Amino acid sequence: MTPNASALLDRLAAIVGPTGLVTGEELRGRPASWTRPAEPCAALALVRPRDTAETGAVLTACAEAGAAIVPRGGATGLVDGILSAPDQITLSTERMTAIESLDPLSMTMVAGSGVTIEAVQNAAREAGLFFPLDLGARGSATVGGTISTNAGGLRVLRYGMMREMVLGLEAVLADGTVVSSMRPLIKNNTGLDLKQLFLGTEGTLGIVTRAVLRLRPEPAGYATALVACPGVDDGARVLRAAQSAFQGRVSSFEGLWPDFYRLMTKPGRATPPLGPDYPFYAIIEVECVAEETDRFLDLLDRLMGEGTVLDAALASSEEQRQGMWRIRDRVENMNADGIVRAFDVSVPLDRMDGYVRGALARMAAIPDCRVVVYGHIGDNNLHWNTTDLDGPGNAAIDAAIYEPLADLNGSVSAEHGIGLEKRGKLGLSRSAEEIATMRLVKRALDPDNRLNPGKIF
Amino acid sequence: MTPNASALLDRLAAIVGPTGLVTGEELRGRPASWTRPAEPCAALALVRPRDTAETGAVLTACAEAGAAIVPRGGATGLVDGILSAPDQITLSTERMTAIESLDPLSMTMVAGSGVTIEAVQNAAREAGLFFPLDLGARGSATVGGTISTNAGGLRVLRYGMMREMVLGLEAVLADGTVVSSMRPLIKNNTGLDLKQLFLGTEGTLGIVTRAVLRLRPEPAGYATALVACPGVDDGARVLRAAQSAFQGRVSSFEGLWPDFYRLMTKPGRATPPLGPDYPFYAIIEVECVAEETDRFLDLLDRLMGEGTVLDAALASSEEQRQGMWRIRDRVENMNADGIVRAFDVSVPLDRMDGYVRGALARMAAIPDCRVVVYGHIGDNNLHWNTTDLDGPGNAAIDAAIYEPLADLNGSVSAEHGIGLEKRGKLGLSRSAEEIATMRLVKRALDPDNRLNPGKIF
């Protein structure tokens, strides 16, 4: 360690206290991330500030030492957004875990950036309220991490992404400046909405330390069905009809292509409510009270009469509902079949069918390539999962999935972010002028490129 | 006119064609804005580009000539956001009025920035869809103007502000660079969400030329009631109960304080459905189908049983519903009584009652001051209207309304913006660090301060 590095660590320890700084063996005992469990966390130190003031002091110290900072939330991201180098400081939000307040009348909550999404959900539920963001990593993903990645998940169709759930936030800039925008207001037109700078920018413009979250009324109940359709466009028509009939209360619409459906309903896995040979399946879930179930059944009947739906199964109990969701959610079934590489892209709904057909045709020509596709298609979001082949095979898969997106006005990352993993793909869904404009903002807020350097671009 | 100015006008005329440039008498025949009908538009010229490419060329020409640009949409803003100086170029979007496409399945529309909100609403309706943004100026307010001001209006509670209705947009930066982010995607996590730079920043960071708008299913119907409550906090409890009972489908919740209610229901004005002596009134509207009316009545009954509601009137026809809305909407009734100065602020819901009581008490001590208060309280948004007194009286009114906001975590502008009018108040709802951060972004995108200079700060 250089004398400068040593002086910086002393200064950081003085700010956060001796237990706030993790170095040496203890640091190497931590994995680099959830996707790299065998790789130790590479950093000069991991620093754990307790609040915004300590975070500000840490960033000021790093600025004066010229050290780079890599923020770290629940470490369950999928795009290598938190990987750090041996000369960098990793800043973990793990001690900022206070739920500071919850106002049931205004339906708002103030939480530290290290609070997990599950803890937010639970606190809301205890107050008779609901925090709609939900994703598989809810037990580890944090408020700060989901803000920095603008997380999506299972209910975006109805409630939006994390962007729509944050009323205000507090962030620390690269030079240690604390920017506090913690107003619990729905309306506040007083110039640039500063929180947008930190939503989805993966810690490259500032470190989020606290947020004011918007809560919602708890849903009164659900009607859930699995439908089979003649094609993807019919599935889109089902979605459209349900949105009209239930005034935007469709909370999930998950498209399942046949290979995915068959894989997830193999013997010993989820029980298949419908036969395996339809061209397209969708799980549709509507928020409604029990007395509206008849209207939901009428809708499905009408769609079957029109031929938009070929067959349908309604979940008549919570157990049946959970059974349907197991078809969608048991990612481990894909892993067991060796289908382990995950992709997350967006395509406009009216282009989706052609895109999937084209990409499947290209991948059919790749030796040993197995692929399944499914996704939150109501949000434009497709997930591909494929086998992990040797270099050239994987490169051919990547090309089949990513290359068409530029012409289709799609996105190389619907909800996972860019991180290090998708940096090379950014140009497929952002123009040179867009990237240049992002760089202008980055340089304005972090002129020395010390906040999560190398991520996104 | 200087030789430089003359050369710039020649160049602009060559870009937009002779009818695209308005100068001299014709320019002076146009009013400065809707709020200043007698004041002529002060500018070197008004330029009317037909599309993004022409807008880019205009901004490049102005950049090379060092000329400032003031953008102009429907000119019905309320904060002097479009006032220009005699040496500046005013850029009007009035020729960018094409609705380029509408996709009923994806529920998206591509529109030029000069399209009025009414035209967007009508085109959506013709396709069996719904564009939720609505405000009194719908016939003149434009897509570009409502993006630049992040307009709100009557349905924010359910559908959000303009920010939530824009999926993508195209903007021209100060140097003429065209930044096109026209993807019709709900999910697109590829770094900074660039459209946020242009939403609510009043044309200070770029000129919006086109947008991809998100449409919604047409509401199936409404249940509408006027309720009287013991106080503001009871009103908030009514809102909260209705949001739970109707799963977030409360589309409007308008608080009316007694002086406002009495003024709007004077003889010859709207018919009062309830007596004039209750402490607080609210119009509540829920999106629902006709068969849900009984549930709405049950809710009102329950709230009356609890004492949260003292009396209630349900609109039993569309005519009665319109009658209730006339109590809220007929601004001309205030003007007729000389209550002409309009204020637009935000306050957290749990602080609202105390704030209004305090401000009313201060204004009661100002000689000849008459004041009424009402607003979209579910969005935290209060509108004050007051008499127009001589200088010291108006200054005392301003102080009574604005000064408490800083300590209450409120906002000096809920939905109107800052413009020139509220520049001096910005510091009451933005910290020095927030304003400094906004300035960093402004300098990065417009280093010579030529885009709508002097607005916001």
How many domains of chain A? The number is 4
Q: Report the CATH architecture of the largest domain in chain A.
A: 2-Layer Sandwich
The residue fraction in helices of chain A comes out at: 25-40%
Q: What does the overall shape of chain A look like?
A: globular
Say what oligomer this is. Answer: homodimer
Task: State the low-pLDDT regions of chain A, or none.
Answer: none
Largest sheet of chain A: 7 strands, antiparallel
Give the percentage of residues in beta strands of chain A. 15-25%
Please count the beta strands of chain A (DSSP E, at least 2 residues each).
20
Q: Give the strand line-up of the largest sheet of chain A.
A: 17-14-16-15-19-20-18
How many DSSP H or I helices of chain A?
A: 15
What is the terminal-to-terminal distance of chain A?
A: 29 Å
Instruction: State the CATH class of the largest domain in chain A.
Output: Alpha Beta
Mean pLDDT of chain A: 96
Most extensive interface, chain pair and sizes: A-B, 95 and 95 residues
Helix and strand content put the structural class of chain A at: alpha+beta
Radius of gyration of chain A: 23 Å
Query: What is the CATH topology classification name of the largest domain in chain A?
Result: Uridine Diphospho-n-acetylenolpyruvylglucosamine Reductase, domain 3
